[in-house]
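User: Hi! I have a protein structure encoded as tokens and I'd like to know what sequence might fold into it. I'm fairly new to this, so please keep things simple.
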């Protein structure tokens, strides 16, 4: 029996002029059908001091978000320490090893990608994107960061719109959060 692949999401986070913005689209696709267009994949946690965004299986992502929030509380808001501890758990705990999702987390100082293979990546250019349209959004953001006066929030939204115009798994229902 073949498993129907759930595709969804483009999430981008970037930093410019001391501001951090994260944007995500709202589309969830099951096979070749859009089954939801207004999912919220970007949110603030820790009294609005940390941004989180996810791509992949929704149930898996919420499990990881819960675990990340636990780590954030345990480590007093230190996202690097929390991300490393989550990545360790993700690699070593059997119940987490099969989860299919990726997380981007950000505070006012840094942006991190947390993946199930144990990686915690801080992007070199203060921008990172994940999901089906991630490469499109990432490319657009690099161009805007290099040659425009747009704010971090404007670049995040414009980059997602471009991804939504190209990627069939990304829509124009965009959520943007900023620190």
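Assistant: Happy to help. Inverse folding works backwards from shape to sequence: for each of the 179 positions I chose a residue that suits the local structure. Here it is:
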């Amino acid at each position: 029996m073949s498993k129907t692949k759930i595709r969804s999401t483009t999430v981008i986070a970037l930093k410019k002029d001391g501001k951090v913005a994260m944007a995500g689209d709202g589309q969830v696709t099951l096979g070749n059908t859009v089954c939801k267009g207004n999912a919220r994949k970007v949110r603030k946690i820790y009294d609005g001091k940390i941004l989180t965004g996810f791509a992949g299986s929704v149930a898996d992502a919420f499990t990881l978000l819960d675990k990340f929030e636990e780590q954030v509380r345990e480590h007093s808001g230190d996202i690097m320490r929390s991300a490393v501890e989550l990545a360790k758990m993700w690699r070593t705990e059997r119940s987490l090893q099969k989860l299919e999702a990726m997380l981007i987390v950000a505070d006012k100082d840094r942006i991190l990608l947390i993946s199930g293979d144990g990686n915690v990546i801080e992007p070199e250019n203060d921008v990172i994107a994940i999901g089906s349209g991630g490469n499109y959004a990432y490319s657009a953001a690099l161009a805007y960061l290099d040659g425009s006066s747009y704010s971090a929030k404007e670049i995040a939204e414009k980059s997602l719109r471009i991804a939504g115009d190209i990627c069939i798994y990304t829509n124009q229902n965009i959520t943007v959060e900023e620190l």
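A useful reference point when you look it over: Residues 1-6 have pLDDT under 50 and may be disordered. Feel free to ask if any position seems puzzling.
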